[in-house]
Structure formats: structure tokens, C-alpha cells
Amino acid sequence: MTQENIKLNKVNENKSVPSNAATEHEFMADVSTQNKLAKHAIQVHKFGGSSLATPQCIKRALEIIRENCQLNDIVVVSANGKTTDSLFAVYSLVEQAISAQLTQKSDELTQAIAELSQQQGQLITELLNTKNTKQLLQLLKKDIEQLTLWLAGDIVQYHNDILALGEVWSARLLSALLNEQVCPSNSIDARDFLVIDNEQSCVVDTATSAAQLRQRRQFGKLAVITGYISKDIRGNSCTLGRNGSDYSATIIASLVAAGNVTLWTDVDGIYSADPRVVPSARKLNRLPNGVAKELGRLGNPVLHAKTLLPLINPLSEHHTHLHVASSFDAQVSGTEIGKFGQIAKQELSVTYLNDLLLAQSVSFIGEAAVKAKAEFAPICMDDQKGFMVITQTQQKSLSQWLASHDVEISFKPVAIIATVGHRVAERGDIRARFKRSLKNAKPLNLVSSDNNHSVIAILPEPCSIELLNTVHHEITKDARNIGLVVAGMGNIGERFLELLPTQLNKVYALENLHLVGLLSSKKALINNDGIDVNQATSLFTQEAQSYDSEQLLSWLTHHPYDELIVVDITPSEDFSLLYEKIFALGIHVIGANKWAASSSTEHYNNLVNTADSNNSIWLGNTTVGAGLPINYAIDDLRQSGDNISELSGIFSGTLSWLFETYDGSSKFSELLLNALAQGITEPDPREDLSGRDVQRKLLILARKAGFELALDDIDCQNLVPEALQSLSTNDFLARANELDEYFANALSQANSKDACIRYVARFQHNNVSGVSAKVSLEVLPQSDAFANLTPCDNIFQISSHWYQDNPLIIRGPGAGRDVTAGGLHSDLVKVCQQLAHKQNQVKIKGIN
């Protein structure tokens, strides 16, 4: 398999939800394990304020750490809940008092400090045992005393030290809890190692910071590090901006060459628009680095603008993946950010920013614009028309900068709305669609970003919720990624794959379908970036690797697609036993496999209920009649209000051929061996002659018709004499002539009545006698609908309230690689058509 392929013998190490740490390197209590650093790529786990807001939230974070971390990993934390906001509020009260020239501390300030202390104290007392509680309460008391001293002094000097307290308290508490309940841990104040040039540019002194971090980390202990804060080259406390803990996490990841960073927050990923205001927003399962960076720059509510900067180093061979996941539902896969193939590059999203300024000046034209862009990094810029869009906070500094050049400037309030996607500015269809969706908004300009990952519309008015929803609908209405996994690489599976390229090109419903998995009974090829449909079989032969069911289910649990469809073309009962778990994941199944649909009543009903409750579609038209639309017909009659009273017919292509061909001119055993040689029968013809296959098919159709039936409720005539049933296949074939007398007599008796023999399935229901069902050899008049078929044909007869006197008949080839593969493609198109109208409800706890 290539590096882009997910190896099924190991959970993808780029994913943290859940990590392979939980299964391969669980935390152990023994000292030897605690002091032995796990040999794997370091992972960084960052917990946001909402993920640490309450005792319940913190307990969830502990479980996530227990399940996903190893001792040489790093945990980065924000302040608990709204602690930083409370510290800002306290600081503001002192500022107001100074402005009002008040000399005494106000009651409001005293109360605010007391509430802050009480909130932190409550977290400590509710979560820790008595010994550690006392220690942390004493440290908290000292910090509150220090805070009071700072507020009484030069508050500007201590501004960042005041704001840093929230992260210090959070790291200290979490580390103490880990020591008590999970593993050895130490808390680290990022100001003890993380050095930046200043708060404006936040350029990290990488060499110094990495060296000092190595000194602070303790062997055999999980490091818990404060986010948001750092120090400058003079040793002063600095912050990295609001929501800067995400940025801290990726900086630290770059310092230790981490393999993965997971941002645990209160949403389960990054969406195609702000899900708080766009109900139809869909989760973006995978995003290329450049696209995610552009989203953060243009106002995505989850991504900090600078978060990705430390992870994107074009000169480095090391690549760190970023994962956004929800601490409120840790088992749900979030959004992965990194280097991906074409499927991930098709993702589109819409974002917006209000309260911006359009600045116009001659200094923004031509070569002079280069200096302005380098100085202010505007939202967007046009160096031919001489304007740039900036934030309101940049107005003063921009005015001063231009004044020093003796150049005039004008400002105009504006907003922006942008379509973001990989090289989206180069996609004429998307750009045209974006422009059409904005016709009523009358944008001032349309500008492409320098990297072409966004097209930005500058609006004269703030972007409304209505406009955002309109644009999002137009841009993303066709943007879905449906993964296709084909299980079964035999004769029909190969034909299905041969037809797939043509189907993808000509059927609109399959526009967003991507082949991502191929399975045989022992080997698998899984590629999240897609498998070339034109080379599927050869790629499977070259690259497939061994797997087991547990590894397959692990990948299915974390697949990165909006929807996933499994096409089961196996004859395997073992594979059918995975259906329940597959349905529980919301994955759809198209099955030619009869085992699940003809399983015990309890198991079958459980499968149906599990699929329904998880919105999984289960189609199995090819389980009976190959490509004939018998399942569709029964579904349609039932959904239209009809009541089916009888189902009958010839359901076996093999038995159809045998009895249409058998006329007594040759012995039945000779005909059977001839059919075996032609591949018409199973390798062991007793599989056909036993009637079990027909029995299962009748059960499937009866259940489709709405009747609760078990296999044992259907009488089944086995055409193999009992003396031949337990023999080996070779022994049976050697004694096949023992079948001749029975069939010769049956045919002779039928001929005497100007009739024929056929193997028929019959299900009947009426209100008086109830249900009867059987499969058996019958003598039929030559005029019967079942008497004159093309050999191998199936025929199905349906009697119902609407079709009483003249039953509905469906007839045609009931076997064959082409018709069966075609039937599977018919089901595939139907599933994709249903999914095109499916709306997934966004469930969020809130966004910081």
C-alpha cells in the first residue's frame, strides 16, 4: 500500500479519535510501565475552556486522556470555562476605577475577586481528594493574594500576568487529577520555555524554546502545559491572542515534531459554514492544510488564524496532522487537517467577517502595494484598483503609516463573504455560481486570495444570516463525498468494478461517489484518497494487505466521508454478521449476500431496526432474481397500500435450466454433470438440488411483503436422496446416477398427464388458513406460466388485492455476472439518489 493508504492492521496514527493508544499502550499502574516512554510519534492534545468548564467536563477530559494518551504525549490546556473572561472583567474594573480617579477598591471588584476564587476553589474541592485539595487551595490562596497586589499596583505592567492565571490554575488542577487517577504528570508554565519576539508578530525562537521545553519535560510523566501564554525575549509575560491556546498547541507540536495535534473543543469538527446560523452546514471531514489556513484567516469560528502556521513547513519532510474533535462526544471522528488527495481537495465552505474597513489609497497600487501588504497582511487587496480590506483595529496604525509617507487614505465600512476550497479561484464553475448567489447583495468587488484558495466578495453592508445561508446552499448543494467499499472480488465483483467507470461518467447521481475500499475474505485495500476505478482490480492484486474484522470495523468507524456505502458481493455468513455494527455506524449496505436477509427472525428484525434507527439504507434487490426488480415491485405495492396474498415462482436459475432442459432423452445425472461443467451449478450441485437457496429466497421475499416468517416455517423438499447428502463432493458426483430413477419416474408421470416438472416456491396467506410456504418439485400443466421458460430464467408471480384475477408476473434471467452486477449498480444509483436529499442535523454544544 502507498503512504496515502490506510493500513487496516493498525488504526491510522494521524487520527486521535480514538487513538491506537487505547488498545496498544494503555496506561498501566506498575512502575516499570510508567517509567517506560511509549515508542510512538508524540501526540499533542489540547483542551479548550469549554472542555474544562465544569467538574463533569474535566472528568470527560480525564477519560479522553486515559484512552488516547501515552506518557510521552503532551496535553495543552486553556483556562477553565470563562475564567479568562472573569480575569478580563476584574482588570477592566480596576481600569475604570483609575479613569474615575477612585482611590479605594470598590465592592464590585472585591466581589468579582471573591467569585473568581470561589469558582476555582469549587473545582478543586469537587474533583480532588483531601490531601491534594489542601495543597491546591493553598496555592490558589497565594495566587489570589498576588492578584490583589497586582491590581493595586501598575496594572498595565502586570496585564499579561493577570490573564495568565487562568491557564496556570487549569494546568495545575488537571495535572493533580492525572496524578491521582490516571498516570504520573507534571504541569508546566509555557512562560518557562516558550519565547516569542513580541505579541504582535508572535515569531517563536524555535531553538531556545525547544531546548527549554526538553529541560522542563520529566521522564515518565505526562506533561500538562499552559496554552495562550508565553514570554518575550526580555522575559516579559505575553499572550498569543484570544483563543491562542490552539496556537500554543501547534507551536509545541512543532517544537517536539509531534505526529498529530488534536484540538478537543465543544464541536465535533470544522463545518462548511458556522453551524450556529447555517442549519444545513456539513462537517468537513478532511481539509488540506492550505485550505484550513485560509478558513482560519477568514473568520472560521473554530480555527485560530495562526493555528496552522507552525505545522506548515514546506522545507521540512516532517508533517504534523491537526485534528479537531469534540470532548463532549469523543467517539465521533472530527475534522482532520493535513496533506490529502483529490477527494479532500473537493471540499467547499463559506465564511464571513463583518466590521471591516475598505481602505483606498494610491499607496496600494503597483509596487508600492507590496510594502503595504507585507506590513498589514490585509484580508484581501487589489493592487490595480488600489484598495485593501482590513480590520477596524488596524485603522489607526495604517493611517499613521501612510501619514509618514504623506499619502491620503479613505475608509469605508464593509463586510466580506468568501467561498473557500482548494484552488477554488481557478474553478470557473464555482466562481460563477458564487457570483450568481450574490446578485441581490450587490458586492463592491470580487477578489481572489493570493493562494487562490478563496474567492472573496466585499459587501457594502454587514453579511446577513439570510445571505450566508443562500450563498452556502448554492455553493455546497452538490458538495458531498460518498465513499464506496466493495466486498467480494470474485466473478461478479470484478464485473461490478468493470462497469463502475462508465457508470460514474454517465449517471449524475454518482457524481460524488468515490471508490475507497476493496475487500476479499482475507485481504483489503483501503485508500481514503480514492482508488483509481480504471485500475481497481490490478491495484488490489498489487497492494491489498491482510486484515481482520476488528481492523475493518475500526476503519469504518472513522471513515472520512459524508456517507459510506458497502456493497456486499460475498457469499459469506461471517461478513453478514458485521451488518449490525455497520448499520450502527450509519453506513449503508447493498447486499447480494442472502445470509442477513434470511437469518433468524430475531436477528433479521434487529438488523432492520438498527438500520432504521441509524438512518442506514439496506437494499438487497440482487439477493433474489439477480437484476430482476422483484424487490422493487414488492416494495412499491406495499408502499402504495396494496396487500400481497401470494408469492410464487421459479427462483433458481440452475433448477430452471435443469428442468427446462430435462426431457428424458438423456439421463438426469448426465445433464447435471453437463451443467456443472458449464458452470451453471454450484461446485457442489447439491447446494442447488437441496432447495435451501430457493427456501432462503422465498423467505426474503415474504419478509419484504411484510410477513414475519422464519426459515423453518418454509417446507423444503431436498432433491438429493438422504444416502447421498453426507458424502464428499467427489463421492456424490461419482454416484450421481443414483438420482436418475427418481427423476425419470417423475418425468414419466408428468408426461402421462401432458404436464411437466418444475421446482417451485410458493407462499400463500389468507385470513382463514393463515400462512403456508413451501419449495418443492411440482407437476404443472404445459399451459402454466412456470412451464415454458428460457433455460436459466427466473419467474415471479405476485397475487394481491390489486392483482387478484390476473397476477403480476416478472420474468427474466435470474443469474449471470452481467445481470447481477447490473442489479447491484441499480441499487447503488437508488441509494445515491436517496442520499442526495438527506439532511444531517448538526448537533453542537456551542462554539467558543
UniProtKB/TrEMBL annotation:
UniProt similarity note: In the C-terminal section; belongs to the homoserine dehydrogenase family.
UniProt pathway: Amino-acid biosynthesis; L-methionine biosynthesis via de novo pathway; L-homoserine from L-aspartate: step 1/3; Amino-acid biosynthesis; L-threonine biosynthesis; L-threonine from L-aspartate: step 3/5; Amino-acid biosynthesis; L-methionine biosynthesis via de novo pathway; L-homoserine from L-aspartate: step 3/3; Amino-acid biosynthesis; L-threonine biosynthesis; L-threonine from L-aspartate: step 1/5
Keyword vocabulary terms for this entry: Amino-acid biosynthesis, ATP-binding, Kinase, Methionine biosynthesis, NADP, Nucleotide-binding, Oxidoreductase, Threonine biosynthesis, Transferase
Cited InterPro entries: AceGlu_kinase-like_sf (IPR036393), AK-HD (IPR049638), Asp/Glu/Uridylate_kinase (IPR001048), Asp/hSer_DH_NAD-bd (IPR005106), AsparK_Bifunc_asparK/hSer_DH (IPR042199), Aspartate_kinase_CS (IPR018042), Bifunc_Aspkin/hSer_DH (IPR011147), HDH_cat (IPR001342)
Quaternary structure and interacting proteins, as annotated: Homotetramer.
PROSITE patterns in the cross-refs: ASPARTOKINASE, HOMOSER_DHGENASE
GO molecular function, a single term: NADP binding
Top-level taxon: Bacteria
Organism: Colwellia psychrerythraea
Domain Aspartate/homoserine dehydrogenase NAD-binding: 488-618
Record keyword Oxidoreductase present: yes
GO biological process, one term: homoserine biosynthetic process
Pfam family, one: NAD_binding_3
Catalysed reaction, written as an equation: L-homoserine + NAD(+) = L-aspartate 4-semialdehyde + NADH + H(+); L-homoserine + NADP(+) = L-aspartate 4-semialdehyde + NADPH + H(+); L-aspartate + ATP = 4-phospho-L-aspartate + ADP
Protein name stated in the entry: Bifunctional aspartokinase/homoserine dehydrogenase
